[in-house]
Amino acid sequence: MRASALLVAFALSPFVAVAQPAPASAHVPAPSSASSRMVAQTPPMGWNSWNFFHRNVTDQDVRNAADELVATGMKDAGYIYVNIDDTWEGDRDANGVLHTNSKFPDMKALADYVHSKGLKLGIYSSPGPQTCARFAGSLDHEAQDAALYASWGVDYLKYDLCTFRSAVMDTQAPNDNVEQMRLMRDAYAKMDKALQAAGRPIVYSLCQYGWDAVWEWGPSVGANLWRTTGDIQPNWQSIYSILNEQAGLAKYAGPGHWNDPDMLEVGNGKLSLPENRTHFSMWAMLAAPLLAGNDLPHMTPEVRAILTNRDVIAIDQDRLGHQATRAYSEGELDVWTRHLSGGAMAIAVINAGPDRYASHPFHLSLAKLGLHGPLQAKDLWTGRQITLSDNMPVELASHDVLLVRVASPR
Ligand code: GLA
Asked: What is the pLDDT of residue 116?
């Protein structure tokens, strides 16, 4: 009796169709309302205003970004979301309806413009009374704001914890961490319900910097993606430390629900070309959202070539959604692998050291990846076919990457 009851239960659950009963410690995603929206079946791709414009973004900057996504071929490569981050918000009127500030005179018209280009519009808010940049947040206005976004034609919401912590968590549950986390999860679930009631498929992006192992409960509050880290900066130290924080999170990613190691800094700050390449390669390996954050109208051809590398984008967008894992590290070199559909595999080797070739000749061990050479592979940055052999020497400039795709690893 018990065995057949178990079988029925498993047959009814959409999450265990392929599995034996899971051991108590295994990760079993909680039922996700996000999956019912059927958005973000691959990691979202697009552009976001924050990393370059910060507080200064205007309606015109967003229109320019939409124009450039089309003109540069980025739209054709998959970049669809045009996301306005913080600082678009104005005041609420007597009915509680939120208005835009003078930088964004007409959000509906802006949404129509973005949509007319075949793109989608994203917006930003906070479960707190104020956003991180101290503009109006959605606290106590969740349903009203979700309906407003839907009426404008918004397709994506980034919901950033910000002042919810001081105004609600610290105030309502001082010194009670468990209760504080419950309040936070409830706030995210509340906006999920509001978005669903608004009746438009809106990608739901959680931003609370990875607190309380958000990857374990994000799907249960409808999240399509959740930030796993603090804010990224356009320098190697930030990018490399965020990359390493992702080791161990692979099992939480999959179609409809993704780990978000933060938006791209490709083309920003003083990142060198190898650093830009490595950043982009590794975010693709991580099945991360690819949200460019650079100044699109002034992008160099080299940066454009990185952001539009179709082979690398195909790794990110692989339909299985299996995030890469770090296979091994040796000295200052790290090797990551990612399983792809059709039995293919991507291998990334990065040199995190300050010197060319690191401090020693590095030999890539195929055996440590469970593989045997020789193997035919495509180098995704040169476009050339190469042969991988056991213990082959790999020479990499400082902060550069070798990214290959092996069609038939076994
Ligand atoms: C936080 C987020 C950033 C950005 C800013 C906007 O710092 O982590 O990504 O959205 O707020 O104020």
From this structure: 98
The span from the CA of 383 to the CA of 377, in Å, is 10
Name the residue among 62, 47, 125, 53 with its Cα closest to residue 304: 47
Burial of 353 (0-12, 13-18, 19+ CB in 10 A): middle
User: What pLDDT shows up at residue 67?
Assistant: 98
Structural domains in the chain plus CATH codes: 27-316 (3.20.20.70), 325-406 (2.60.40.1180)
Residue 30 CB-half CA count within 13 A:
13
Among 160, 260, 318, 400, the active-site one is: 160
Q: Best of 50, 55, 260 to mutate for ligand 1, by most ligand atoms within 8 A of CB?
A: 50
Which pLDDT score, from 0 to 100, does residue 156 have?
98
- pTM, rounded to two decimals: 0.91
> Which residues, 6 or more positions from 301, have their beta carbon under 8 angstroms from its beta carbon?
none
186 assigned to active site? no
CA 137 / ligand 1 centre spacing (Å): 13
**Contact between 304 and 275 (Cβ < 8 Å):** no
| Index of the ligand 1 atom closest to the CA of residue 230 | 8
b/e burial code for range 127-151 (CB count within 10 A of at least 16 → b): bbbbbbbebbbbbebbbbbbbbbbe
Q: Give the type of residue at 80.
A: I
Main-chain dihedrals φ then ψ at residue 99, nearest 5 degrees: -110, 160
Catalytic residue list contains 231 = yes
Q: Taking CB atoms and a 6 Å cutoff, what residues make up the pocket around ligand 1? A: 50, 85-86, 131-133, 160, 207, 231
- With beta carbons less than 8 A apart as the criterion, state whether 299 and 337 touch: no
